Amino acid sequence: xxxxxxxxxxxxxxxxxxxxxxxxxxxxxxxxxxxxxxxxxxxxxxxxxxxxxxxxxxxxxxxxxxxxxxxxxxxxxxxxxxxxxxxxxxxxxxxxxxxxxxxxxxxxxxxxxxxxxxxxxxxxxxxxxxxxxxxxxxxxxxxxxxxxxxxxxxxxxxxxxxxxxxxxxxxxxxxxxxxxxxxxxxxxxxxxxxxxxxxxxxxx
Length: 204
Description:
Blueprint: H1 8-18, E1 31-36, E2 39-44, H2 47-63, H3 69-81, H4 89-105, H5 107-118, H6 137-144, H7 154-190
Antiparallel strand pairs: 1-2
Helix pairs in contact: 2-6, 3-4, 3-5, 4-5, 4-7
C-alpha cells in the first residue's frame, strides 16, 4: 500500500515501532526518556507535553521529517513557518529549541523547511481528536497543504530572520537550564550508590 493511502493510525503505529516509541508513543507516561549526546536522562512528561506530541507526531507523518536531531530541527522550522503553535505552549518550546539547534549546524536546511512551512498549515490550532487517525496520510497532507519544496520570497526571508532571532534568544536562555539538567543526570550516574539512594534501600 502506498504510504499516502495508509490511515494515520497505521502510519503512526509504524512510526512508533520504527523509532522505539512503544505501542502508544508514551504520551501519557509520567516521565520521558531523552538523550543529550551520549548522556541519557529523563524529563517530566506533563499533560501539555503529551497533547503537543500527539499533533507533532502527525506533522512528522505529513512532512516526512525524521526524528533524529536534524529532522526534529527541520520540523521545528516547518512548524514555525506554518503558523507556530497557537495556544499549545509546549509545542512552542519544541519548535523554538529545534530551530535554535538547527541554526547552529544546518542553517540552509532550516530556511528550506521554514519556507516549505510558509506554504502550509499545521494542526496546532485544534486539539487532537481520535477520529483524525481515520484520515489517510495523503488526506492530512492535502488538509495542511504540504508541498515538497517551495520557492522563497522576500517576505519569507524577513520572517525567517525574525523567528531566528527569537529562537536564538530562547535557545541561549534555555541552554543554561538544559546544561544544568544534563549535568545533574551525568553526576548522578557517576556518584557511588549511597544507602538511601540505592534502589530498594530503606533507612536504617
